[in-house]
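Researcher: We're teaching a course module on how sequence relates to structure. For the next exercise, students receive a sequence and then see the predicted structure as tokens, so they can try to spot secondary structure elements on their own. Here is the exercise chain.
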Amino acid sequence: MTAPLVVLAAGGTGGHVFPAEALARSLSARGYRLALITDARGTGYRGALAQIETHRLPVSTLTGGLKQKLRGGVDLALSLYRARRLLRRMQPAAVVGFGGYPSLPTMFAAIQCRLPTALHEQNAVLGRANRLLARRVGAIATSFPEVTFVPEGAETRITLTGNPVRPAVLGLRRDGYQSANGQGRLRILVTGGSQGASIFGRVVPEAIARLTPAQRQRIAIVQQCRPDDLERVRAAYAELGVSAELDSFFEDLPARLAAANLAICRSGASTVAELTVIGRPSILVPYPHATDDHQTANAGAVADAGAGWLIDNAAFTPVALAERLSALLADSAPLDRAAAAAWNLGRPDAAERLADLVQRLAPANGNQPTKEKAA
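Model: And here is the predicted structure for the students to work with:
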């Protein structure tokens, strides 16, 4: 008997792609066949996604000026047509979407073909693409216990699974938190996403400059900087006599997070998932231009659980950060409590929970597309 096929609809940023890759690994281990439908950017994927059948649609964003919106509308219509043809031919047992505009045509096509469908939402705010689909899909997997902007009537379809993380992160969950108690070093990891964050390159050195010389001697910094900021920030730490390792990109970022006593970072969904799975306290500074301010909602969930501290981007000043660091250097007990709370908040089995949900949707003998619903 041919193994059932599950189609994944994902593309765009790593925040949408990472959980799709994790689900692909879990379902493959259970004997499922996998296929990916993505956008034109869906090239160069590694890991599980690189091993599966991949189809690309010409979908593009609907935001921007009138010309871009018109082009986006045409691309969406064409992508929907192509997605319907693909799904009729592939006859998947289920279709799973991971949000973002690249998932829209495939998920709409799956609904029209009356296929079993599920969505995965990575943030504490239901994304706009997922919001459009929420009332019509069979299941919604969430990463946070509380999610806003869920359409009325869709609440009953929600299952809390968590947000899957990379194997490199899962393997670090067993590494215990090393307290910065007494007069020990406070090891700080500063990271701002794949391109760094200019605000961290400015605020963090200025905050540390406000500490006493004795406090500065107890700090060790690992910081991701924008390439243009590297030399300036490196010189600032050298002048302060602070131990600092700087780069624009760290290949072993999960290991560096595990070695830290405190992370200072943005609060994207993948970042929060990794912080909580490994169990590390954080000062979270939400990116102020994130869609629907979802990073503030993510950070709020962490802060409410006692796993870290939320500082609004506008309030993230050298004075505010220096005060926080000074307090933590004087008493590390809050860090220890936050590390334990973060570890308890983590969901290392998120990929398996998501696979369980898909398995309940997908019959063992696959599923045949039926007559499309009326438009």
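Model: If you want an answer key for the exercise: The first strand starts at residue 5 and ends at 9. Residues 5-165+349-361 form a domain with the Rossmann fold fold (CATH 3.40.50.2000).
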